Amino acid sequence: MIRHYLTITVRNLRKHKVFSVINILGLSIGITCCLLMSIYVEHELSYDNFQKKGNRIVRMVMDYHFEGSEPQKIAVTSTKVFPAFKRNFPEVESGVRMILRQRIITSGQNMITEPIMYADSTFFDLFSFKLLQGSTKDALSGLNKIVLTQSAAKKYFGNADPVGKLMQIGINKDQYLVTGIIQDCPSNSQIKYTCLASFSSLGETQEESYWGANYITYLLLKNESDIPKLQAKIPVFMKKEMKLTGKDYFTFDLEPFTKIHLYSPYYGFESNNSITYIYIITAVALLILMIACFTYINLSTARSMERAKEVGIRKVAGALKAQVFGQFIGESVILSVIALLLSLGLTYLLLPAFSKLSERTFTAASLFSPFALWFSLAITVCISLLAGSYPALILSCYQPVKVLKGAFKNTSSGLWLRKSLIVFQFVISAFLIVSVFIITKQLQFIQNTKLGFDKEHVLVLPNDDKIYAKLNTIKAELKTNPDVISIASTVNDPTNIFGGYFIRNEAMGEGKGININATPVDEDFIKTTGLTIISGNDFTAQDLKDAANTESGGSSTYHFILNETTAKQLGWTPQQAIGQKVYLGENRPGLVKAVLKDFHSTSMHEPINPIVLFNEPWGTKLLVKVSGKNMPQTIAFLQKEWKALVPHRPFEYHFLDEDYNALYKADMQLGKILSIFTAIAVILACLGLFGLSAYSIQQRTKEIGIRKVLGASVSGIVMLLSKEFIRLVIISLLIAFPLAWWAMNKWLQDFAYRTDVNWWVFALSGLAAIIIAFLTVSVRSITTALSNPVNSLRSE
To answer: Considering the entire predicted model, what is its pTM?
Structure first.
């Protein structure tokens, strides 16, 4: 019996090649999208699951503000927090302070800039990274000790055993002892490193203050249930520690470690993902699969008339309803299995491109993981049952007497269902088209909005104490090239000026102020970045000398440049602010020298923050403004001069606009994925529309022949055949547009600065959908309209 059913299925597939290809191709594409998304979603949801103690680990988030200022939170702390909490809270079992620093590793004649993670010796008490060689107790205990990952050990020592050997690290070539080899970090870990060094090597473990927040601190609690208990105790403890008055506020929040990657708004060692984006991408993939399933249902029910006589004869011959139902479900299973096998091949071929798109590393092992295999099986079963049940139920319920007498007609309910499914397919497609238009419009708005600074043709180079000591010489030599316009030293570039500072005027009194973002800069920073001074004057070389004198006990003071927002929050107009005395923190008194026009120092998800530039003589970056002409020659010149002037560092650079684009990495990724999925959804919807219209036109071939004989034009016939389907598309647009408007407005609310949702976006999207649908239907309509009516009428 099964063999017989299989034979009939194969015959039907071969007999109706166009419909078979549409069904198999549509289902394959839908399953492929779901498989790729399942691999991605599994990876994101599995973040840090390998950490055996992950449910007991929390990250410390500093939460502070002063009277009259906005609350501010950052996921960094000072060195004091971990030891203070370990002493005062019995819930804390252990903890670790960590910081990622770029260091130069000298290996033979090569200098390589490597990100090195510095961590306390308690690192292995919290995390489950497997140490392959060495002792977890001693590996990070003591000065200048380092643990290498397997890949780093191979990179620097080849096949030799590095344990016990020395490495030259830093601009002073400090000798670090290799104390262990650790497994490479998994891709689904929020903590990633190639080298792990002892925290004491930084020389920054003194417990002076809760300020000076530069380190990420994790605590290991004795029980998971201790998290809310400890959180309730912290504000009271911090009030005593900081001697707070009630008008200011300083405390810490606890973030569950396993929730950070998908739920935290705070940056850590890598950019977080968003659970909202995971939901969006998953929903879109499932909607694409639904479009493919609806195409299958539509074509199967539309062809029910052709198979009605087959069912009637089978029933007369003694076939039971259950047997007929089983036959058609069996056909659905076979077709689904074929589609699944094809989709597995497509997924395998697309994995490299998908890895690049998602910025993850997926291999064939990801495709054949237990989750992916079970997911594939579940999809196949669901498609077979859900997509195949309705056609099988309709066909198995035919009454053989009516069918064989020719009295059976396709039911109006079946026609209504097919129309409804077409509408639903184009609702999804139109919704996605509008969404992609608006997301693209917002990303263009981000790129084209005037930021208040110039991000074009600015190279970012490293800076350190040795470079700063001869900065004037370096600037002079590099500016001998006419294409090098300006060079500046800074700690933060304009795309990302950090918080953690506060400023007050004299009227506020000690311990009060407003939260601000601030960075030390030199006298060329404003000129190099193109910031606009609206009152006052730029920094000078003398201002830097004044700050150096202050540090050494001299009588001079700092000079500050505020943005408009800072001046306003301090109660001044830009003109009134000039010459006012302010305090940056409690140890940097000085005078306001200028006020800048507001500029975007963070992403447009956030409003413009209060910003202060101050003239402290140090920096971690050099910004080199070039003309943009002769770029290859300019970079070659910089590389040559760098090698001569900065022999202790390799020439490594990137452009400032890359830093800016990194702020919108998740948004751009969503835009790319949605654009691709929208194209797929539209193609699948058109495949279904093409198949259904082709079948409808086939049923009306003789009618068209008669109309042509009576004088109907080709254009008239095409419009006759197309108008019903175009009407359905218009109905789908009326449903999709309100949904898209609501969803996109919700998405745009996440941006402090956003584009408008204009009416023309919907008009353009609707026009595109109608044109695509018309062209899809017209392909077969025109062919039929141009055919010789004699051929269709001769067989009557």
So the answer is: 0.82
